[in-house]
Amino acid sequence: MDEKTVMGAAGFKWYAIYVRSRHEGVAYGQLQKKGVESYLPLIKRNRQWKDRKKVVEFPLFPGYLFVRVNPNPSEFVNVLKARGVVSLVSGQQGVPLAVPDNEIDSLKLMVEKGSGLDIYPALKEGVRVMVMRGPLSGASGVIVKKEDCYMLIVNIDILGRSIGVKVPAEDIEMV
Questions:
Q1: What percentage of the chain carries pLDDT values higher than 90?
Q2: For residue 24, which phi and psi values (nearest 5 degrees)?
Q3: What is the CATH superfamily name and number for domain 3-113?
C-alpha cells in the first residue's frame, strides 16, 4: 500500500487517461515508476490459436486506464509525460473530468469478484455494426435487444426475412 492510500489521499481524485493503442501496460508501468497511483482493470479471456488455447489478460477498457492525483496542473503534466499516455479525458475547454470514487470502487469490486464481465460499446437498438473477429468476421447487421441480451440481426431484404445471432460485444464495431 503506498503512502497516498495510507493518508486517505485527501484532495486526490480519479481521472481517466487515454493511452496509445496497445500501450496500456507500458503507461501503467511508467506511472507506477513515477509513484502515481494507477488502476488498469484487466479481464481474462480464452484465446485460441491454431496450435493451442490460452487464458490471456486484456484491458477491460482498451486504450484507457485510471490515475488518482491531486487536481493541479503540475500533477497532470507529470501524468502526461509518462510514455504511452496521450491525454486526460477532458470536458469542455480541455478541463480534465474527475471520475467519482464510488464508480472506481464499484469497478474494482466487479473486476475482482465478478465473473463473465463484458464491455459493451454503447450498444443501442437499431445501430448498424460489423463483426470484426471470430467465426462471423465480416458479417454486418443491426443490433436488437431480445429478452436480456443483444443480438446481431442480418436482414435479407429481398426475401423479407431476418436471422439473428448472439455475438460477443468485443467482436463487433459500429459502422
A1: 41
A2: -60, -50
A3: NusG, N-terminal domain (3.30.70.940)
